[in-house]
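Lest this sound abstract, we let one protein speak, letters for residues, whole numbers for local backbone shapes, and leave readers to judge:
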Amino acid sequence: MGKKLKITESQLKRLIVLKESWGSYDTISGWEDELETAVKKLQKVTPEMYNNLSSEDNQRVTEALRPYEDNVYDYIMHWMESGDVSADDVAQLAYDNEEEFGTEPQFVIFAIDDFCDVFGISDSDVEDENEDSDFENDEEMPTPPSEEETQNNQVYESIRANFKRFL
């Protein structure tokens, strides 16, 4: 007979919340930024880059992915060759591996990071792109109101407040 577990009500509620969150594969709870970064890094690796690896670097890829489940290597290779990978794909694989093999979901992110490290693609490469795109967005922001507009708004608010007093 199996061993009975005693859990508190708060632990049960937490388990229910965790189980419900499994229905959505768009994120790995607590690892959203790392997941996004891993996907962007993997998208930078092209089949040409992989095909041009020396035998020594090819061995480094094999060694880097050895600690992970075999299917992780297969998926990473498929995503790299097709150029089609999304956060949903990675999260789905992570949850499937957790269910099938008992591995932590973030290990898929670690595997992608290790794979990309062989190609010299780091987090800073992706962060640099994010900073550039943030700069472009800053340029498109509307200009703040002029001093005259600000004074007009203050006068308007003052008149409005006084008008309400008389109603």
